[in-house]
Design brief:
5-stranded antiparallel β-sheet; binds adenosine monophosphate
Length: 120
């Protein structure tokens, strides 16, 4: 069950601020408060969902498609496509998810190493 008091829900309701890089009808992208790379952006759908699986299961196709297209818009606007980036979504307890609103991490701006070396 979705917890409306999670920190990203509060950011979406503008109850707490964020360092926004992109916003549209379906999504919000902002800088991670504790960056793990020179560029560390979080992307969240405005749709209420705890995990990636809930988003895919419950949101409609337009919402899902536009959210992921906007991930690419942000990648393009950040100018990181050529040098590369990493997308991560942590899901549930085993995935190490801390904030229970589905989000995608965009990490870039430097060589961020091999997957097993990174802890988010
Ligand atoms: P996860 O472990 O995948 O749930 O990641 C949650 C992320 O949210 C972490 O990287 C935190 O640094 C980040 N975070 C938590 N609170 C905020 C906030 N108020 N603004 C921006 N990022 C946040």
């Amino acid at each position: 069950m979705y917890n409306e008091n999670n920190i990203f829900a509060k950011i979406l309701r503008k109850e707490i601020p964020c360092d926004k890089v992109h916003e549209d009808e379906y999504s919000l992208f902002f800088k991670d408060i504790n960056p793990q790379a020179k560029i560390h952006i979080l992307g969240i759908p405005k749709f209420q969902c705890t995990t990636f699986s809930e988003f895919i299961r419950n949101a409609d196709n337009e919402n899902i498609s536009i959210f992921f297209r906007n991930v690419q818009v942000v990648i393009k606007n950040l100018g990181i496509e050529k040098n590369g980036y990493r997308l991560i979504t942590n899901s549930g307890a085993d995935g190490g998810q801390e904030v229970p609103h589905f989000h995608i991490h965009i990490l870039a701006g430097e060589n961020i190493g091999r997957l097993r070396e990174i802890i988010l």
